[in-house]
Design brief:
- The chain is an alpha/beta fold.
- The longest helix is centred in the last third of the chain and has 16 residues.
- The chain is built from five helices and five strands, in the order βαβαβαββαα.
- A hairpin with a 2-residue loop joins β4 and β5.
Length: 119
């Protein structure tokens, strides 16, 4: 299941907004509204029955500042950003590679095991 959302449209501390969104969501995708790569990742996560959140980057008022923050965090200016448990996954190709190698599922299992064991 996935939810769509946006960050608060506030110029104050885009870094904090991004960090909050990443820490509050085990799987979060920052993308443009219409992006074929995002669609591919959405389909994969849906098929894996993973809960995740999508933030429509192109709907954000302060996207230039937020893109600068992403560049500092990931060293990339591209818009599609996938984070799993706070870890940046480089690309759609890397997401599918991790899935093929069964490492993506392992990331999800580690999270759910830790979460439910400590709740």
């Amino acid at each position: 299941m996935h939810t769509s959302s946006s960050l608060r449209n506030s110029a104050t501390a885009p870094v904090n907004q991004i960090q909050e969104a990443i820490s509050d969501n085990y799987v979060i995708i920052f993308s443009k509204t219409f992006c074929s790569y995002t669609t591919m990742v959405n389909m994969l996560l849906h098929d894996m029955n993973v809960n995740y959140k999508v933030v429509g980057f192109d709907m954000l008022e302060y996207r230039s500042q937020i893109q600068d923050v992403f560049y500092k965090v990931t060293s990339e200016r591209s818009v599609l950003k996938i984070f799993v448990n706070g870890t940046f996954i480089e690309s759609t190709i890397d997401t599918y590679r991790l899935h093929r190698e069964e490492k993506l599922l392992l990331l999800f299992h580690q999270y759910y095991f830790f979460k439910f064991r400590h709740d």
